[in-house]
Amino acid sequence: MKKIILCLISLLAFHSGNSQMRAKTDERFELTSILFALAGAPEYCMCPIPSYFQDIVDELAPFDRSAPVEYARELHQIHRIGYDAVATTAAMLKIEDGVIRLRPEYDASGIADLDSRWNEELLRKYIRMLNEFYVLSDFHTFYEEHRPLYEAAEKRMDRVLEQIDCGRFESLFGIPLDPEEMSVYVSLTNGPSNYSVPGGVLIGMSVDREGVPDTAPGTDFLLVHEMAHHYTNPILDRFEGRMRQAADAIYPHVAEQMACNAYGSAEVMIGEWFNNLCTLLSLWEPDTKEMEEQSDNLVRRGFLWMPRSIACMKEFYARRDRYPRIEDFMPQLIAFLDHTAEHFEEVLLEYEKSLPRIVSVFPAVGSDISGCTEIVITFSETMNGSYGFSGTGSDDPNVRPLFLIDDFEKAVVWSPDRRQATLKLDPSKARKNTTYGIQLHTRGFQSARHYSLNDAGKNLLFHTGR
C-alpha cells in the first residue's frame, strides 16, 4: 500500500476557535460505503481523492467477486438499497472486538418501519456479509493505515463547523443543538452525497489541488440541511396530513425537476421544501445576499415557490412573541401552502419571467447571412458568460449547422455588460442557397443568477442567397 504522507496534517493545522462541534470519520461508514462502491452502486463510486481511490482499487477491489460484494450488488440491483438506505443502517451498527452487530437500541425485526426497502431477513444476512468482508479484506488494517488522511478531512470540515451559529437552531425550533447528540461524520468515499442518519449527519468530501480532502463550496448549506432534518422530520410527521392535498396539487408541475433530485413523490418533495426553508432560516436572515443566492439555487432545482415561502417567513420573524418556534407558525405556513397550490399558475408565470430571453438577433432570424462574419444576440438580462449549442434547431435534414469559426473557445464573444453574445462566423464555409441553423443550449446560456435561457427563440435559422 502507498503510505499516506504524514505531513498532510501539519499542512492543515489551523486555529480551531471555540466551536464545540467536531467532525469525525467512522469505520462503519467507510466500510459500508466501500462495500457498495465495489458492488458498483454509482452513488458510492464518486470518491474524489486520488490516493484513497487508488488504495481502494489496489487493496480492496480484488475482493469485488467475493460473496459479500455480490450480496451488496444484489441488494442494490434487486432491492434498490443504496443512497441513504446504506448510510442509515451503517449508523445503526457498532464494531466491537472485530465483530459487527446492531446497536442494542435497534431491532432487526423493526427495520422495515424505518426504511421499507429493508426487511429483517435482508438486514440479518447483510450484517453477516459485512462481518465476512471485514475479516476477508482485513478492513480494520486498511482503515487504521488511512487515519492521517481521515484526520486531514476532519480538520477541513471543522473549519466549516466553526462558521455555523448553532444558536439559530434553538431560536428556530426551540431545541438547542447538542453536539453530544448530533455527530458530524465525514466520508471520503461518498463524494457529493450527504445524508441525515440516526444520531447525526454524514457529509461527503471533495479534494483540493494537492489531492488533500477538502470541503466543496456550499458545504455549510449541505451540512445544516442534513442537521435540520433531525428537527423538521418530527414536525412533518405531525403536520404531513394537512399538507398532503397541496403537495399533490403542486407536484405534477415540478415532477420532472424533482425527479432529477431523486425526489420521486409529492410527500418527499414537500418534506424537502420545508427542510430547505428551515435550512435557509438557520443560516441567514431574510433579504441577505446569501439567502437570495441559495433561494435561486433551490428554484432552479424545482422549488419554484421558495421566494414566496421566504416572504411568508418574514411574518414569522416579525411576530416572534406570538410564534416563538416554527412549529407554532405551522398553521400559517400550511395555509400559505394551500393558497400557493391553488394559484400555482401564478408561481409558474413568475418563474417564466425570471428566465432570460432573447430580445433581438442581428442579422434577423430568417434573413440572408451571405458574407456575414458575425451574428449578435441580445438578451433580456445580464448573462453569466457561458454558452453551448445543440444541433441545427430544425428537424429538417437539409438544414446545415451554422458555419461558426473552428476555434470553439473564440466562437462566442460577450459584450462587457454580458447582455450581448456575438457568434463569430467563417463565411468561407457557407454554401449558396442553403438554410443554416443553430440551437442555443438553454443550460449553456444562463443569466448571472444562473437561470437557464427560456426555450422561446432558442432555435435560430438563416439562409444564404443564390
Task: Tell me what the structure shows.
The protein has 466 residues and is α+β, with helices and mostly antiparallel strands. It has 3 domains: 149 residues, no CATH class; 133 residues, no CATH class; 110 residues, Immunoglobulin-like (Sandwich), CATH 2.60.40. 45% of the residues lie in helices and 13% in strands. The protein is built from 16 helices and 15 strands. Strands 1-4-6-5 form a 4-stranded mixed sheet, with helices on both faces. The protein has a 4-stranded antiparallel sheet with strand order 9-10-13-12, with no helix packed on it. The longest helix has 42 residues. The protein is globular. The N terminus is likely disordered.
What percentage of amino acids are in beta strands?
5-15%
Mean pLDDT: 91
If you compute it from the alpha carbons, what radius of gyration comes out, rounded to the nearest whole angstrom?
A: 26 Å
Our count of helices gives: 16
- Fraction of residues in helix: 40-55%
Q: What is the general shape?
A: globular
Q: How many strands?
A: 15
Distance between the termini: 70 Å
What's the short story on this structure?
This protein is of the alpha+beta class and 466 residues long.
Q: Descriptors for this entry?
A:
466 residues, Immunoglobulin-like, four-stranded mixed sheet
